[in-house]
Amino acid sequence: MLGGVFGITTPASGQFLQEVARRQAIEKPGVPLLFVPGPVEYVPKPLEQVANGAIAVVTGTLVRVKSYLDSTGRAILTDYMLTGPTVVAGHLPTAAERVPTVGKPLILTVVGGETVVEGATIRSEDPNFDPIKEGTQYLLFLGPSREPGPNRYEIHHGAIFELSGNELKALLKQAADILQGFDAKEQPQAFVARIQKAMQVR
Length: 202
What we know:
Blueprint: E1 5-6, H1 16-27, E2 33-35, E3 45-46, H2 47-53, E4 56-69, E5 76-90, H3 95-98, E6 106-111, E7 113-117, E8 120-124, E9 137-144, E10 152-164, E11 167-170, H4 175-178, E12 179-180, H5 188-200
Parallel strand pairs: 1-2, 2-8, 3-12, 6-10
Antiparallel strand pairs: 4-5, 4-9, 5-6, 7-8, 9-10, 10-11
Helix pairs in contact: 2-5
């Protein structure tokens, strides 16, 4: 059972989640909290333009590494390792592109997850996205990560897609409006070819 649902609708202090967790641990020990951050306002853009702004587009399987409180104290983040990565468009400025099994793995950081803060369990859900399924293959547009370190990335402009056979499912709930030109019925091969063409011209 959850001990309450809360979110940030106005700017909060850097200690926001720690303060809430500390109170929860004292007043309701052992009862987890659900934290829902405010939704991100994505500007609608043509899919080809979104691709042009990405560092690279890759496919691979996501495996959860860890969840943690970010350095600002305002968000729970989760790191996923991208296993079996294949760069389908663009270029990664790392050794991982040249030799995927050598060196540090590619890490994708997303908003949300579950971790213990100040003795209280906090679960965080990103209202913009359907949840990532661990061990599932995805096609991802990669952007720079807010967390420092080599081979670390985040999802660029909400563009993450679950690959299942000949189906491509956007995890972004408003993908049809935000990623203009995205068609869930388009075959993954045709989708990738379109993205490759768009990224060749930059």
